[in-house]
Every structure is written in structure tokens, then in C-alpha cells.
Design goal:
The structure is a single chain. The chain is mainly beta. The chain has a single domain, classed as Alpha-ketoglutarate-dependent dioxygenase AlkB-like (Jelly Rolls, Sandwich), CATH 2.60.120. 12% of the residues lie in helices and 31% in strands. The chain has a seven-stranded antiparallel β-sheet, covered by helices on one side. A four-stranded antiparallel β-sheet has the order 7-12-9-10, with no helix packed on it. Strands 4-5 form a two-stranded antiparallel sheet. The chain is globular and about 40 Å long. The structure holds N-[(3-hydroxypyridin-2-yl)carbonyl]glycine and fe (iii) ion.
Length: 220
């Protein structure tokens, strides 16, 4: 794979902790391609509000692409190969997205990232995400790569316990947050989105999170 194509440097790098870095503006040079890829995915697997196992409707609307997609319903949080809404396999992960995620991981110190799942979140004003850990994946040795587009949001970055105090990080259009290693299971969430209009994305924030969700053997 030719990663030179994607060798645009970030505007600057912000080290958050040992395993976590924000690559500011890393996805800016590819913003149109990324948004076109998102539109292509959601034309096949539309955004929807899923239900938590506890019976609450999630305020962020979600879709997925890649071999595995993240879902939640009354029977729990998990990854599936098919979109339960359409009954079809999740749309393939567009190359632009795959390459951007791999090159961001590499720049952040995680070479060899093999994402098989990309969760796409759309936040409308007041949508939020409660503190949680990303622990439905089989492989915690690989990082999570998270792209933010559109309206800015306050991301809360906590510790290994839900009650640990959180650090606030503002994520804005084009930023890529990469975390892994010792930070992989830290609690995190996002505060309610403030209303606004982004010139390219409109009245939303779009977040894409890439993960290696399946086992190594799933790829063979
Ligand atoms: C969001 N992101 O930024 C939600 N998880 O809208 C996440 O839950 C997340 O951004 C793990 C790593 C990075 C993330
Ligand atoms: Fe998360």
C-alpha cells in the first residue's frame, strides 16, 4: 500500500498521554473525499438511532462500514457482519478511509494497524455520548483511530474507572485522535453538541472510529 499519498503532516501533534495523541487537522486535506465516502456508506446503510441494552435510545445516529459493524439493541453491544436494518453485509470500507486511518495510526506510533470496523456517528445539537470503555473488540493490542468532522465537541477523557476525573479535549473539524496501548481501555465520552453551522458539514458533527474488532483468524 502506498502510504506516501497520505503523508500529509498534521498541523500539529498534541500528546495527551502515553498512548494517546491528537493529530490536529490531519484529515483536512482529504475532507471532501472523506465526506463523499461517508455519504456513499450511508446511502447503503443509513444513519439510525440504536437502542442500548437498558432500553434508552442513543442520541447519536450511527452507521458502520468494514467487515464488522458495531450495533446495540436489547440483547447487548456487539459487532455484526450484517447491518440489522438492511439485512445486507455492512458496506465495504472505502479506501480513502482505510488509508487515512492506517497512516494516522502509523504517525501516532502504531504501525501495522488493520482496521476491520469503522463506526460512523452523527451528532445533531444536544446529542452526546456517556462515559464508556471501548471493549467489544477482540484485540486490544491495536489502537482506536477517531476522526472528527463538522461542529466542534468537548471530548472527555477519563481513567480506568468510570468515577476517575476526566480531562476535556476539544475536537474540531479534521482532527484525528489516536489512542491505544496503556490507554486503550480508558473511559471516555462526549458532552452535548452545541448548535452551529459548519460550512462543509452543516448542523452536525460526524465522528468516524476505526478499530480492529475481530480476531486475527477472522482475516485468514
Ligand atoms: C466520538 N468516540 O468521538 C465518540 N472511542 O463521538 C468514541 O467513543 C471513541 O473517539 C474510542 C476512541 C476514540 C473515540
Ligand atoms: Fe468510544
Amino acid at each position: 500500500m502506498n502510504l506516501d499519498l497520505f503523508d500529509d503532516p498534521p498541523l500539529w501533534e498534541e500528546r495527551i498521554s502515553e498512548g494517546t495523541v491528537v493529530l490536529r487537522g490531519f484529515a483536512l486535506a482529504r475532507q471532501e473525499e472523506v465526506l463523499a465516502a461517508v455519504q456513499q456508506v450511508v446511502a447503503q446503510s443509513p444513519f439510525r438511532h440504536m437502542m442500548t441494552p437498558g432500553g434508552y435510545t442513543m442520541s447519536a445516529a450511527m452507521s458502520s462500514c468494514g467487515q464488522l459493524g458495531w450495533v446495540t439493541d436489547a440483547s447487548g453491544y456487539r459487532y455484526t457482519r450484517q447491518d440489522p436494518l438492511t439485512g445486507n453485509p455492512w458496506p465495504a470500507m472505502p479506501d480513502t478511509l482505510l488509508h487515512l486511518a492506517i497512516s494516522a495510526a502509523e504517525r501516532a506510533g502504531y504501525p501495522g494497524f488493520q482496521p476491520d470496523a469503522c463506526l460512523i456517528n452523527r451528532y445533531d445539537p444536544l446529542a452526546k455520548m456517556a462515559l464508556h470503555q471501548d471493549k467489544n473488540e477482540q484485540d486490544f493490542s491495536q489502537p482506536v483511530v477517531s476522526l472528527s468532522f463538522g461542529l466542534p465537541v468537548v471530548f472527555q477523557f477519563g481513567g480506568m474507572e468510570r468515577s476517575d476525573k476526566t480531562q476535556k479535549i476539544v475536537l474540531t473539524h479534521g482532527d484525528v485522535l489516536v489512542w491505544g496501548g496503556v490507554d486503550r481501555l480508558r473511559y471516555h465520552g462526549v458532552l452535548p453538541l452545541k448548535a452551529g453551522i459548519h460550512p462543509l458539514v452543516g448542523e452536525h458533527r460526524i465522528n468516524l472510529t476505526f478499530r480492529k474488532a475481530g480476531r486475527l483468524s477472522d482475516l485468514i
